[in-house]
Design brief:
Keywords: Signal. InterPro entries: DUF4197. It comes from Flavobacterium terrae. There is one protein chain. By secondary structure, this protein is mainly alpha-helical. It has one domain. Helices cover 75% and strands 0% of the residues. α1 packs antiparallel against α2. The radius of gyration is 26 Å and the shape is elongated. It starts with a helix and ends with a helix.
Amino acid sequence: MKKIFLLLFLIPIVSNAQLKDLLKKAEEQLTSITNKDSGLDIAAGLKEALNKGVDVQVSKLTATDGFYKNQAVKILMPEELQKVDKALRKMGMSKLADDGIKALNRAAEDAVKESTPIFVDAIKNITITDAKNILLGNQDAATNYLQGSTRNPLYAKFNPVVQKSIGKVGADVIWNNIIKKYNSLPLVSKVNPDINDYVTNKALDGVFKMIAVEEVNIRTNIKSRTSDLLMKVFALQDKK
């Protein structure tokens, strides 16, 4: 900004051509400063929106039945184990099958509670350039960006948390019993699923889905823009 004032101070002692050149440079610097400040605001606003998604929506997943009674994210029997579910119910072991599904969801609920800081840390890495593209993108652009750029590292951090939670809520015992019962049935192909991997991916799917819910809410509902920054940043989106 000091450079701009200096340029303007020198105006009286320069030629018309020089004056035009100086004014052009001053305009470019002002534009650069404005864009920089705007970019910082956009990045900060999107980070706030994603953090709000974690606070408002993802926190709901950590409650008892947060996954189990939310049909949008409820974890069901793995596709490759649908035959297990059918076989158990056919043999009068419906309760065991139901307990298995509930145990998977309990593990996810516990794991998300333990690892919420992981998602918060990941949000901090959104750049100004990315932020501008995200703001003018689809209604879930921020969530998709977060998922695309952080899914693999999040999986690496989240997986051991899920494994711990599976043991904590007793899901490992229940599922070992289910697999043992099924494999003991006559004329069935034995199974040995990686429940830890399955719950990890499903829990991550649920987290990103709920963050997207809040992002869409903020983008489309002005009342959900609960801070001056959110109002300012997403007003830019409304004008596109």
